Amino acid sequence: MVGLKCHQVSHKTDTTCEINGEECPLQRVFESRQPYQVIHRHFDQHHQADYVAVNASPILNEQGEVILIGESIASISHGNDLCFDADKMVGGCCPSFMRVLDNLVSVAGTDAPVLILGETGSGKEMAAQLIHRKSRRFSKEFVAIDCTQFTEESFTSELFGHLRGAFTGAVENKMGLFELADGGSLFLDEIGELSLTIQAKLLRALETGSFRRLGETRTRQADVRLVSATNRDLKQMVSQGQFRADLFYRINCMQVELPPLRHRRADLPELINYFLGRAGHKAGISDRARAALLEYSYPGNMRELRNILERAIALAKGERLDNVHLPEFVVHAELAAPVHPVHGANDFFSCNAHQHPAVEPAPAAVGRLSLDSILDALDRHQGNRRLAAEELGITERTLYRKLKLLPAAD
Questions:
Q1: For 24, left (φ over 0), alpha (ψ -120 to 50), or beta?
Q2: pTM
Q3: What is the mean pLDDT of residues 200-226?
Q4: Distance (Å, rounded) from C-alpha 222 to C-alpha 179?
Q5: % the chain with pLDDT above 90
Q6: Predicted confidence (pLDDT) per residue in 388-400, tens digit
Q7: What is the mean pLDDT of residues 334-342?
């Protein structure tokens, strides 16, 4: 490693982190003279991806100049940890994915409730498991509950348990899922599907941590960390009277949005290769079939990409994948189903400026951004800092810092 640059060791590339779509923490520390943290994807000795938190801190001389930098690197999650199965969100290095990974690690360090927003198939349970594994509760249970399975009759029994004889068929005492998660994390998947009656029962347990098993007079306590997920717009549901406002504010302490696959186009080539390799397909894929897959919007997200490729591999019968093996709606855009975003297009962090290799990287270096260019980008996006940062080719965190460093920005 002596004589090599850091990106040559960690990224196995001769290009710098910013050209690869990541921030250089050393450059940021030299600019701001303040500590800085970023999430990078490094590669181990087996060339396997390893997601790490890079913390850089300045060492100043008497004149306040940065003369040295101290840097620590801590592994967040090995690439294999992000692939629990093919239905989950597989890793990548697209800016929106790295931003979400940074957010997940940050919220994992707290005990506050988390609301994960994401479209169907975007990997909400994977995100919840990562939060649990990186929290102080990692040694306790992670209990996942599919909220679509509950009826008002079964809710109390399933979540809080029951005593023998509490109802017909209750032949023994049963511990509920809420109690099972004591000391650990309770993941409520698709919480937007709960009826208002069930929401009221859930709210009290979440606020007090107390509950009773069905048929029991004794009050029990459970200490759970709540993680909820939905593919619906809960704020709109509150305004329509379909979701309790008090429950929404209870679960929405910290919010993480998972990027849909159409906002991770820079990762698509790698994801396609991942699924082809996972299925053992070695005959390759034609350029036009790859181009069609790169342009498709994937309303079903990662799950749909997996299904499309598994179907194509079966039809190819060991031959090279081509357009004829892909569904018509992938090859012909006019036949594609509409996407169903959780929010409007302007409310999500898009990474269109960092697409597949045919697209040039963002031309403006962060250090050369002018105040006018920053304000113009903010004006074009009606003050939306996430979208403005994406257009400028920087992260939202960098945009905040640039605004603070420019006196005229006040």
A1: beta
A2: 0.65
A3: 89
A4: 6
A5: 24
A6: 777 777 766 667 6
A7: 73
Instruction: Return the DSSP state at 400.
Output: H
Q: What is the Rg, in whole angstroms, of the alpha carbon atoms belonging to the chain?
A: 24
In terms of DSSP bridges, do strands 174-175 and 220-221 run parallel, antiparallel, or are they unpaired?
unpaired
Beta bridge partners of 186: 143, 226
Helix (H, G, I), strand (E, B) or coil at 132: helix
Digit-coded pLDDT (tens) for 261-270? 888 887 888 8
Question: Taking a C-beta distance cutoff of 8 angstroms, is the pair 152, 194 a contact?
Answer: no
Among the three residues 30, 54, 79, which one is the final residue of a domain in this structure?
79
User: According to the 3-state scheme, what is the secondary structure of 271-293?
Assistant: HHHHHHHHCCCCCCECHHHHHHH
For residues 60 and 19, membership in a common domain is answered with yes
For the chain, what is the domain count? 4
Distance (Å) of CA 317 to CA 143, 292, 310, 314: 40, 20, 11, 6
Same domain, 35 and 113: no
Helix segments in 82-195, DSSP class H: 95-108, 124-133, 152-160, 177-180
pLDDT at 323: 93
DSSP 25: H
Pure H helices in 11-120: 25-32, 95-108
Pairwise CA distance, residues 38 & 395, whole Å? 10
Residue with tokens 């993680």: 227
Q: Do 229 and 124 contact (CB within 8 A), yes or no?
A: yes
Task: Judge whether 376 lies within some domain.
Answer: yes
Strand pairing of 225-230 and 114-117?
parallel
DSSP SS3 for 68: strand
Which residue segment(s) compose the domain that 271 sits in? 261-335
In the structure encoding, which two tokens stand for residue 212, read together? 């009773």
Domain assignment present for 356:
no
The pLDDT of residue 321: 93
Residue 14 confidence class, pLDDT cut points 50, 70, 90: confident
Contacts of 336 (CB under 8 A, 6+ apart): 296, 297, 299, 329, 330
Backbone conformation region of residue 209, classed left if phi is above 0, alpha if psi is from -120 to 50, else beta: left
**195, HSE (Cβ side, Cα atoms, 13 Å):** 9
Report the CATH number that the domain containing residue 275 is assigned in CATH.
1.10.8.60
Q: Is a pLDDT exceeding 70 seen at residue 232?
A: yes
